[in-house]
Amino acid sequence: MAMPTFYECTTNIFDPLHAFWERTSTRRAVALVQVVVFLAGVAGIELNRRGLLPPGLARITPFSHYYAISLAFTLVLIQEVIDLIFILPCSVSKAVGKQFEILCLILIRNAFKELVHFSEPISLAGGFEPVLPLLADGVGALCIYFGLGWYYRLHATRPAGSRGTNLYAFVAAKKFLSLVLLVVFAGLAVEVGLSSLSAGHPQVFFEVFYTVLIFSDILIVLISHAYQPGFHAVFRNSGFALVTLLIRLALAAPAFVGPGIGVTAMAVAVGLAAAYAAFALPMRDQVPVGK
Question: Any residues with CB less than 8 A from the CB of 104 and at least 6 apart, and which?
Answer without folding.
Answer: 141, 144, 145, 148
